[in-house]
Amino acid sequence: PAGISEEGASSVGLLYYKNLDGPTVSSVTLSAGSYPNEASSMDTKGFINMIMSSVPTAGYSMSSAASGLTLSASSDFSSNGTIEYSTKLSKDDLVCLNAFGGIFKMGLWTIDMNESLLAGNTPPFAFSVLDNPRKYRLFCRKGISRDLTYISDVTKYEDLTIKWRLHFL
Questions:
Q1: Tens place of pLDDT for every residue, the chain, 169 residues?
Q2: Which of 66, 86, 113, 117 is most buried as measured by Cβ atoms within 10 A of its Cβ?
Q3: Cα–chain center distance at 2
Q4: Distances from the Cα of 4 to the Cα of 9, 118, 149, angstroms
Q5: pTM above 0.85, yes or no
Q6: What sign does the dihedral 98-35-128-164 (CA atoms) show?
Q7: Which among 1, 83, 95 is positioned nearest to 50, based on CA atoms?
Q8: Of 101, 62, 99, 104, residue with least CA distance to 84
Q9: Which residues, other chains included, contact 83 with Cβ-Cβ below 8 Å and sequence gap of 6+?
């Protein structure tokens, strides 16, 4: 089902944590929610679906990176060969990701044409958040030496936009 909004939901929850320097238990209010989950653009395996490209068809406007994965290229793509993938993680996404170990690896995946066809999913390749029939294969990955979700004060998280540029020339 479609999410409440493309900018998250309010009053999602409360996260309790213990300060390592003492016996104090503190809390962080989780108020923004998860943008990809709210926009129903992430499946149960964590794949974020592309929402809109930089060259939308007539009548469509660009979508926010908070809704899922956006793909863009400049009008002079033929001369510079650069494509940019962008997604936005809410502060609440970052708090939860940090609690489960953080982000040290990222990958860009594409539809595995052969596996998708063998599974009976034909173009335009249907997408479902609960039972996604698409099959994917990794085509680009990035290892990061420092956790992208690390912050010294967990009460100070802010939304994070991740941009990944690929150069094809």
A1: 344 444 444 445 777 776 666 666 667 777 666 777 777 777 778 788 776 655 544 444 455 676 778 888 877 888 888 888 888 888 888 888 888 899 999 999 989 999 989 988 888 888 877 888 888 999 999 999 999 999 888 788 899 999 999 998 8
A2: 66
A3: 16
A4: 6, 34, 25
A5: no
A6: negative
A7: 83
A8: 62
A9: 71, 72, 73, 77, 165, 166, 168
Do 83 and 97 contact (CB within 8 A), yes or no? no
Buried b (16+ CB within 10 A) or exposed e, 92-128: bbbbbbbeeeebeeeeeeebbeeebeeeebeeeeebe
Write the CB contacts of 116 (distance below 8 Å, at least 6 apart in sequence).
122, 125, 133, 134, 135
> Could you tell me which residues are beta bridge partners of residue 86?
70, 163
**Which amino acid appears at position 156 of this protein?**
K
Strand partners, 30: 13
Q: Which stretches does DSSP call E strand in the chain?
A: 13-18, 25-30, 50-53, 69-73, 82-89, 105-111, 136-143, 160-167
Gap between the Cα atoms of 145 and 122, Å rounded: 39
